User: What shape does this take?
Amino acid sequence: MTTAFPNGFLWGASTAGHQIEGNNVNSDWWAREQVTPGMDLSGDACDSYHRYGEDIALLAEAGLDSYRFSFEWSRIEPIEGRFSRAELAHYRRIVDACLEAGVTPVVTLQHFTTPQWFAEAGGWSAPDASDKFARYVAEACTVLDGVEWVATMNEPNMQAAIMTAMKRMQQSADGSWTSPTVEHATDEERQRASRNFLANADPEIGRMFVRIHHAARAVVREKTSAKVGWTIAAGALTAAPGGEEKLAEIRYGKEDVFWEGSRGDDFVGVQAYSSQEVDAHGLVPHPVSPDNTLVGTAYRPDSLAMAVRHAWEVTGGVPVLITENGIATKDDEQRIRYTDEALQGLHDTIEEGVDVRGYLHWTLLDNYEWGHWEPTFGLIAVDRETFVRTPKPSLGWLGDVARRNALA
Assistant: This one.
């Protein structure tokens, strides 16, 4: 018995420019790496800036038909108001390489990083941030001919959570927030603050991102024929006994503001990896288990279906594209098992009537995971000295699923 997916369902893998390209020297993340203790340097990353053709070929040869990748704003606009025609042409070549290989390109215009000049001018909080981003988006649209799927931003809710945490740390001097490192805080206060550092996102910051997204969405619609949306990090959160009220509070600021902001989009990108409980105090730490991932999260392939159902409900029926789902593990058999179980659950949501358009695995390559090299999410291993790519069995397994358009 097989589990078939809809005709035209997209099967592929995702990447992000800063994590794979290498030497993204004009970005805020590159600058952060140089001064943050304990943070690994991205350096050459996977050298995909030069080897993108090989990466796309490996994906296509395995049987996958879609590739999500990002444009690097800091390369395209390294100086405010000055756009690099060479870099725009570079990203156009990646689009063309996809199309020539029979691969559907899914382009993300901003994947966590911004130009350093943008960050220094106040970043997303600056009064003219939306205008600056829209100006960049307009330039990016000049090389999007033939691209059917465009995400304006990746996980703005995670960016909002970081901004909220930084804001509260700045407020800690007047006692309005207890930092986990405050000298006189109790152990319990430190634990709660640490565990919820990125949990409570300010809904006003979320609404700011929604306005920026809508402005960018209007530009993409004016200048291209692509479907446009954005991608959201889904926590698949559940309530522990007594945690129902806290769950609603956390989930609204962290996710639902953004799902609501997706209403009117052509699709919404759902990104899910694990599930976590919320009690009356906030997020409950992941239980210790041999199956926990390399980033400490619980093995929860059911989180994908949970996230899809919630997104479908809150957006009011916006079509779903799975833009990230995967597991940080050295055990590729565990990766296959996780993905198979996640896809079984995803198929269940389709049977229930959710409009799911495709599944893009995170990630194609073992890459730079935002400060660390240790977590390996990839379908392909990459030698960091030689950049030799070695496909894992999971790549072939997912490619076989894609060819059948069904689980075995």
Summary: The first helix runs from residue 17 to 20. The chain has a mean pLDDT of 94. The longest strand covers residues 227-234.
